[in-house]
Amino acid sequence: MRECGHLNPNANDMQQLCISLVPIFNHLKPGEMKEIVKTTRHVTYERNQEIYGPEDHSDHLYIVHRGRVKIYRLSEAGKEQLLRILEPGDFMGELALFSASTFDHYAVTMEKTELCIMRRSELQTFLMKYPAISLKVLEEFSRRLERTEIQVSNLTSEDTEKRIAMYLLELLDQSDKQTITLPISKKDIASYLGTTPETVSRKLAEFQQRGWLEQIAPKKIRILDKQALIGL
Fold it and tell me: Rounded distance, CA 123 to CA 120, Å?
């Protein structure tokens, strides 16, 4: 683990909250959860700090307590390919569950971020002691695999306009309102969708001209015609 984060002393309450957020642990009994809390460290990173990068050893599990982390790879040409955004309750470094290997991607904070960190050896002990944790981990792996397969399929088989429409629909499905908030910058959206920020801006403007949506703020969009986006 890189030592650029700041350890927070006397952070037991924060660690308890952190562990209770993550789905792989929040089903445990209070006593079991306290046992896990004792093995974690609470670390703070500033905005745009690298938590780990390619060739770093994956010997820790990282749980996001506060803030956001982006996971991305760099192409041979140096172009960033966004893989996913982690928010409170999400975890990374899951390769540490199985073997001491190295990462093939970057994890960088998008804002001031607090993490709870657990060593691989301690995590494996808990997997043996509380098998239900393993089932929760497998559930999360299954969800990530499904999202990755959808992303790869979209990048290889759909045109840019369709990819942008599908991204907006995905955000809409996560909201109970007609208005959605873009969770990341247009640069990061472009990286995630395999296009350019200019193309994202142009297509959003075109969708607005067609009456499908209304951009009511830089990151707020009101969807006016969901069926039109679906039909692209």
Answer: 5
The span from the CA of 6 to the CA of 188, in Å, is 27
Cβ-contact 219, 182 below 8 angstroms: yes
Residue indicated by tokens 């650029």: 4
Tens digit of each residue's pLDDT (9 = 90 or more) over 131-155: 888 888 888 888 888 877 777 776 7
pTM over cut 0.90 = no
| Sheet of 91-92, strands arranged across | 6-7, 41-45, 113-119, 60-66, 91-92
pLDDT digits (tens, 9 = 90+) for 169-207: 989 998 878 999 999 999 999 998 989 999 999 999 999
Q: What's the residue count for the chain?
A: 232
Among 205, 206, 52, 194, smallest CA distance to 117 is for: 52
Instruction: Quote the Cα angle for 171-165-192, to 5°.
Output: 70
